[in-house]
Design a protein that fits this description.
29 strands; 6-stranded mixed sheet; 704 residues; single chain; alpha+beta
Length: 704
Amino acid sequence: MPLDLVTRRLDTLRRQARSLILYDGLSRVLLAAALAACVTFAIDYLIPYLPREVRLTLLALSVLVVVLVFYRRVILPLRVTFSDDRLALYLEQQYPQLGDRLISALQLSRSSDQFSRFNSPVMVTAVVDDAVRQAEPLDFGRVVRSERVRRLCGWTGVTLAVLVGLGFWQSALAGIWLNRLLGGDARWPLSVELQVVTPGDRVAKGEDYAVQVRVLKGRPSKGTITFRFEGAAEEEERLTRRTDTEFVYAFQRVSDSFQFHVTAGDYRSETISVKALTPPRIDRLCAFLHYPKYTGLTDTPPERPEEGGHLKVPSGTRIQIRAHANIPLASAQLLVGPRGNSRVEPSKIEPDELKEPKVVSGEFQVFTDTEYALSLTATNGLGTGGDPIRYTVRVVIDVAPAIKIVKPGIDKVVTPTATVPLAAQITDDFGISSIALIWKLSSGESPAEKTVPFDITMNSDRYGAKKIDSAHTLDMAAWGAKEGDIFQYWLTASDNHDSPGPNTTKSHVYQIQVRARNELERRLEEVLMKMKEDVRRTAELQKGIQRTLEDSQTALGTRDSVTGPERESLRANATRQRQVTQKSDSLGKQMAEVLEDLQNNKLWDVGAQARLADIRALLDEIAKAKSPNASELMTAGANARTGADRATRLGEASRKQTEIGSDFTEILQKMDEWEDYQEIVRIFRELREQVDDAGKRIKNTGGK
């Protein structure tokens, strides 16, 4: 039909319209994308520290805008249906000379069969032929106005070319923008670049957090740090310049989590978040001590552990540690040894009463002084650090027993029949296992040593005690002593130490010289004669003190006022009285030794010993009662506030001194009596010796 030519031309017109719509829409989409790129580039470049979240939001908005433009300018227009009728009406609007011929021809042509009974075929053919004839010379393509689309496509091309050219020209900036737009960490080039060095993203509560800022580029005159603690307002502080290329800032004793960033010049660091966490610490530290056998000590009972970390234990003690931490633990180490040279001992983490891993246990044995520490790591990642709290263990070395021979405690000269009392005090830090007396004859040939083990009858306590007083009698006759012999003796004592063996101590070695009876008597007589002279001098000193006191009594009387020199004179006299006390005490001790020697060596008779015992009793009374009392009374008199009080005290002191003078007189009389008595005994003994010698001579000569 002639109308087919028209419909084909309408199809061509439809395709041209759709192409223009597509070109127009795509151009607008590309322009929207270019505009979004420019906007995001400008925003990110002008605000170089946009957070990643904001940059990703800009990307999402840009994509959304482009998608919306694509939908509205491409998808929706292309979904519009361009029917032949619609195109015909549009052509008739553009070409008025067509009138209604084209639309009428199309409609009559479609309905000719359906409505044939109403329409004349001849009329329809005439209308169609007329429409075709009128449309044939017309240019349907002219109704599609493409100038605006061409301009839009041209501008789009120019825009894209410019953007692509700029991208190649500033490829580095383009790469940074693209990286940042996609959420990367690339940074815009700045005049100042910094490196922020921190200890990490967590800090123990109560500790300092130091921030070090290194200048990598530029020379900023100052730097600031902006921070905000949880629940607090944002604050800003100036960084402290350490060198030209380094700033520092320290958060003191951090208590809460915080965020911060550093600014210098046009540089602003990323925001750094720091969590403040509770560090692990030891809330309670217990020790259970397992003592070595030699100590005899009872191990620490489970219900009464040793509290605290510092310990003092015997050598060889096994120490079991049990520490309670404040927060759950991930790991723990028991470090034993000095700092820098510690060894790791086995340890384990156990649950506490609430089933939380907070209890650390371990054990180690000590033989010398040492240290130990617990290195903890909590489940929150914090630890006790490289230098945890160290505790000391002082080891008590098991020392050998100490021996003190109390009696006689000096070398002795004795007769062959003497008995010498021996008294010793033995002490040990943990317990004594044995004590023995060892003696030998040291003059002439040296025989083997002889040992006398001390049994319970010789000791004040059983073996195992820390202190034992031992007593024994050295019997010279039992030792087979003869005149001229020299014996040596000493004590040994051992403790219970088991590794590598007991500690043994040897006491000082003492000598016993065996002399004839008359030689020892002469020695004692010489001692007594010297003592007599000492008593006489002491008696003279006492008389001088008494005379001085009497002069002071006469001068002072009962007057209240006493001059300084007078008071000092009384005090000096009291000091001299104390000298009498000391001399009397020394003489009494010497007399006691003489009496003991007389008794042990069986010298002199009971009468001589009784006289010396009376002398000793008088000396003891002077030294222990009368002379100290007199000295105190004189001191009290010197310090008296009233004359009456002073006179009373000095009067009592004078009476005591009179008694002391009388005692010294009696002592000298008794010593004179002892001399006379001993002279008679000596004469009698010499006569008896002469008679014995005569009898021996007669016996030897056979009575001739």
